[in-house]
Write a structure and sequence with these properties.
Protein name: FAD-binding domain-containing protein
Radius of gyration: 35 Å
Family: Belongs to the paxM FAD-dependent monooxygenase family.
InterPro entries: ADC_dom_sf, FAD-bd, FAD-dep_Monooxygenase_BioMet, FAD/NAD-bd_sf
GO molecular function: FAD binding; monooxygenase activity
Structural class: alpha+beta
Shape: elongated
Bound molecules: flavin-adenine dinucleotide
Helix content: 10-25%
Distance between the termini: 47 Å
Keywords: FAD, Flavoprotein, Monooxygenase, Oxidoreductase
Largest sheet: 12 strands, mixed
Number of strands: 36
């Protein structure tokens, strides 16, 4: 026999309410986070420095896994001009083709398509979903021309450049590569630095390219992503806008264009661009020459060292997207990783997350995102081409090599799995099944937090009687249990409770019927003699019949109650009560109370702790009992406002079935029924009913 345990939590989970989330930056990452969090049920405000005129004419690719995240948000890329990436080809500096791969078959390997979309289309679609009055949750409020100047960790607040302050439960810094929030949180961090290369970005209508025989081959296949290698430079070309526009990213050593690191989209001269790629084959130069000068933007590529795990989150403020992990464009993963971060927020902050849960959830955010984003960031760095000023790159990589790494990761499911496992670990009760996170029960909610019975109702009908102590002693599972009444008599109660309107059972209820042996003491001697001896007093419960599987399972696993299934049919009127307990249509017990009259001075029964005994089964040898343990649980609370009735008479009778007949009627219960039938009711001491209904209580 082990020690005496008390394992019953009771607390109040309170009303669930939305978190107030403030997001700095309405770029791809900020808007995606706003969508995931509004759809989870939270209130979201976005503070965006620009007027949203700055998204430039360039395309972005949507890897299969991120495509799935967009669809989860309700954004269907093809409805916004996205076309599929169907081919990938690579060319040497002399124009010779290295390979042409049909990547349409990837749709058989990954669940969502690999698509190419115009940034403005993606951004507009995200903005519409985040702020729309339609769709799940409360529309996010978008404040334009609202540049965040600083944040305060202690008060979880941000201050705008105009001096106004806003506070929330959670702040997300999604303000891009030059993040103010990051700068405010981490004072001694070196800023992002030039990587040694820059990129010209522009679009050319496919019609223009097709109409010229010298360049028509650049548009001969729909959805072709071309990599035009050239030593220390590279051009990436792919279509967007349903294959009507060809997007160019022309990467080159930054000293050749000397762009400012502070501004992303300067207009750059066409002349400089053509000069940078003068060594390229004639057909490439011919296609570059078709770029409209006013449509060419120059982007100086910045790199940022890993921030370190400890720097992604400070208090209830977290970084997301480029603010947390600035990306070079060589794998087209910057936007993708920002969306993955946002999805992790959606998964880790379901409705019902409380302010006090936020720090732990942000730890899970780091767990879900840090290694993944950092790995992709690093692989991206390595896949850059080497320039004289650049620190990284120069590794020869097959562009398809990392498709598996990039595409084969569902950031929402990954974070959701982390949340479930962490909640289960921290839950009050490790209840089976373990795969779905904490399973709700009378004692814990979906988050594994303690819960009360809530606005329930109950009716308990009981018979307390005098009986032979010697027989009740046979029902005590070890000598450590003793009935402490004097002499040869003992008292016990048969009691039936019907519970209703239980939150954890979808407002339904169930009944339970048990035998309670009064005045029992359990004594466990400790190894250190008397000082270590533990004693528990209460009503010992040899068996509890219940008529629903869920409470039987939770009660057995969580509070070690000896629960078994039985049908419990009850009939109650103003003056009488009847119970028929049975199994599969055969009755084993009848209990009845008659002549019930309301009694204001009747005492509540069964208010002592409930003692139960369960065996600890060895994990090595199935069914081998190693030890027995005694558990003490609080009695069901007797509510204020409870009504009580006394019975003028009461009867309880167990079945007359004997031997084989009994076993056939009740294969698993026969021995229990036989044991209960051995109890002689010498005198009924008290019988009655007590009931409570929350809905009758005036607030
Ligand atoms: C040419 C090019 C091609 C690319 N191709 C791809 C690709 O194919 N695939 C891919 O996944 N990624 C690609 N990227 C990278 C990707 O665009 C970025 O990594 C991504 O936009 C990062 O998202 P974000 O939300 O973190 O930051 P951003 O999109 O930069 O958004 C930050 C937002 O914050 C706002 N802001 C800044 N400071 C403040 C402030 N103080 N207060 C309030 N608001 C502020 C900005 O105005 C902006 O709206 C490409 C980038 C470029 C330039």
């Amino acid at each position: 026999m082990n020690g005496t345990h008390t394992k019953f939590t009771n607390g109040d989970i309170g009303e669930e309410k939305p978190l107030k989330v403030l997001i700095a930056g309405g770029g791809i990452g900020g808007l995606s986070a706003a969508i995931f969090l509004r759809q989870a049920g939270h209130t979201v405000e976005i503070f965006e420095s620009s007027r949203f005129a700055s998204e430039t004419g360039a395309a972005i690719h949507i890897p299969s896994n991120v495509n799935g995240l967009l669809r989860r948000m309700g954004l269907i890329p093809e409805d916004h001009g996205a076309n599929q990436c169907e081919w990938v080809s690579e060319y040497r500096p002399n124009g010779e083709q290295v390979f042409l791969k049909d990547v349409r078959m990837l749709s058989k390997v990954f669940p969502y398509p690999w698509q190419l979309i115009h940034r403005v289309d993606l951004h507009n679609a995200l903005k519409a979903i985040a702020t729309s009055s339609e769709g799940k949750g409360t529309p996010a409020i978008l404040h334009l021309r609202s540049r965040v100047a600083s944040v305060d960790v202690a008060s979880t607040s941000l201050t705008l450049e105009d001096g106004t302050s806003h506070s929330g439960d959670l702040i997300i810094g999604a303000d891009g590569v030059h993040s103010k929030i990051r700068g405010a949180l981490i004072k001694d961090l070196p800023p992002p630095e030039p990587s040694g290369s820059s990129a010209f970005r522009f679009l050319i209508p496919i019609e223009t390219i097709r109409s010229d025989p010298k360049t028509a081959h650049f548009a001969e296949r729909d959805g072709e992503l071309r990599l035009l290698y050239g030593g220390d430079r590279r051009i990436v070309v792919y279509p967007c806008k349903q294959n009507t526009s060809l997007n160019f990213v022309a990467l080159h050593p930054d000293e050749e264009s000397e762009a400012s690191a502070e501004e992303w989209d300067q207009s750059a001269s066409k002349e400089t661009m053509l000069h940078c790629f003068r060594s390229y084959p004639e057909d490439v130069k011919a296609v570059l020459a078709k770029a409209a000068p006013e449509g060419i933007n120059l982007w100086k590529l910045l790199d940022h060292d890993e921030l370190g795990r400890q720097n992604w989150v400070h208090g209830n403020i977290a970084l997301l997207g480029d603010a947390a992990h600035a990306f070079l464009p060589h794998q087209g993963q910057g936007g993708a990783q920002a969306i993955e971060d946002a999805a992790a927020f959606g998964a880790l902050f379901p409705f019902g997350t409380r302010t006090e849960d936020i720090p732990k959830r942000l730890e899970m955010y780091i767990q879900a995102r840090y290694d993944r984003a950092t790995l992709v960031q690093d692989v991206t760095r390595q896949s850059a081409f080497k320039t004289s000023r650049g620190k990284h790159g120069g590794m020869v990589m097959n562009p398809m090599q990392f498709t598996e790494l990039n595409f084969n990761h569902d950031a929402f499911d990954n974070a959701h799995g982390i949340l479930l496992r962490e909640l289960r670990k921290a839950a009050a009760y490790q209840r089976m099944p373990l795969s779905f996170g904490p399973t709700p029960s009378p004692r814990q909610d979906l988050n594994g937090r303690a819960r009360t019975l809530g606005k329930h109702n109950y009716r308990t009908s009981f018979v307390t009687f005098k009986t032979h102590k010697s027989y009740l002693n046979t029902l005590l599972p070890s000598n450590e249990f003793v009935i402490s009444s004097q002499g040869s008599w003992a008292t016990a109660t048969f009691s039936v409770s019907k519970l209703g309107n239980l939150a954890w059972l979808g407002a339904r209820g169930y009944s339970f019927f048990g035998l309670y042996i009064h005045d029992v003491t359990h004594t466990k001697e400790g190894a250190g003699g008397n000082a270590d001896t533990k004693e528990a007093k209460g009503d010992f419960l040899p068996v509890l019949f219940e008529n629903m599987a869920d409470p039987i399972i939770t009660g057995r696993e969580e509070i070690h109650f000896p629960k078994v299934f039985a049908t419990l049919d009850e009939q109650a009127s103003a003056s009488s009560y009847k119970l028929s307990a049975g199994w599969e249509g055969t009755e084993f017990c009848q209990m009845s109370l008659d002549g019930l009259s309301e009694s204001v001075d009747a005492e509540s029964v069964l208010q002592a702790p409930v003692l139960t005994c369960s065996s600890n089964v060895s994990s090595d040898e199935k069914g081998t009992t190693e030890t027995l343990s005694c558990f003490s649980s609080p009695a069901l609370p007797s509510q204020q406002g409870e009504k009580r009735w006394k019975a003028a008479s009461a009867k309880i009778k167990f079945t007359d079935l004997e031997g084989k007949e009994l076993e056939l009627a009740f294969p698993t219960l026969a021995n229990i029924v036989k044991g209960l039938r051995g109890i002689k009711i010498v005198e009924i001491l008290n019988a009655g009913v007590q009931a409570f209904d929350y809905s009758n209580v005036s607030n």
